[in-house]
Amino acid sequence: MTRRPPAALRDATDQDIRRHLIATAERLIARRGTAGLTVRQIAQEAKVASGVLYNYFADKEELLALALHAHIRSAAAALPEPAAGGTLESALTAYVTRSLAFHAAIMPAFAGLFAQPGVLTRFAALPQPRSLREELAEFLRAEQRAGRVAAGANPDAAATMIIGACHELVLPRLYGGATEIEVPPGFVADLVATILTGIGS
Fold first, then answer.
1. Residue 189 vs residues 71, 114, 148: alpha-carbon distances, Å
2. CA 7 → CA 46, 47, 55, distances in Å?
3. DSSP label at 47?
4. C-beta of residue 56 within 8 angstroms of C-beta of residue 23
5. Roughly how many angstroms between the first and final C-alpha of the chain, as a whole number?
6. Region 53-64 average pLDDT
7. Do residues 110 and 37 touch, judged by C-beta distance below 8 A?
């Protein structure tokens, strides 16, 4: 099939058009999630004919997976970096707060996605950025070397517990189709205090 760029991108390269379509799908996913999102809706938002998408992607699942991947990376890049210095407690509080903010940002995109296993399979095959759990474990190892985390503590296990607690707030609501996280009062402070009881030096 001969590729014909849309009028709005007449002088664009194939890569430019492909990026435009991914960015358009990402914008729609961020706004309304993946559930029920159609090729026609993406094409209308991108101002192209529906058939154009199949010139640049094998199918809708490939486009949605790439757009979801871009959305996750954008959400992660938008998170504030933990402030340098301060106490271990303040640093852990910042990591928990960042984790909850990240999940709140991406949760709408995943709502309804479990009914689209093809998208999930394509998404899982894409290179993934360093996870919050890996980032937190690395921070805790550095704090352990500095003597602010007990020598016998397991940073990887502690990071898994912290991020897992955040997941526990998200997954039951996600499976139920919710698009927002309700954080119980005192959740962050209680989680951090519980972890520090076990790893604070």
1. 29, 32, 19
2. 11, 9, 15
3. T
4. no
5. 65
6. 92
7. no
User: How many angstroms separate the CA atoms of 191 and 187, rounded?
Assistant: 6
Give the DSSP letter of residue 8. G
Give, in degrees to the nearest 5, the angle at Cα 118 between 161 and 26: 75
- The pLDDT tens digits of the residues spanning 4-14 come to 555 556 667 88
Pair of tokens at residue 187? 């959740």
Q: What is the C-alpha separation between 96 and 187, in angstroms, rounded?
A: 10
> How many Å separate Cα 10 from the centre of its chain?
33
Q: Are 159 and 142 in contact (CB under 8 A)?
A: no
With b for 16 or more beta-carbon neighbours within 10 A and e for fewer, the 47-63 pattern comes to ebeeebbebbbeebbbb
Q: Return the amino acid letter for 36.
A: G
Residue the block writes with tokens 């070397």: 145
The pLDDT tens digits for 76-127 are: 888 877 666 788 898 899 888 888 888 888 877 877 677 788 888 898 899 8
**3-state SS assignment for residue 79:** coil
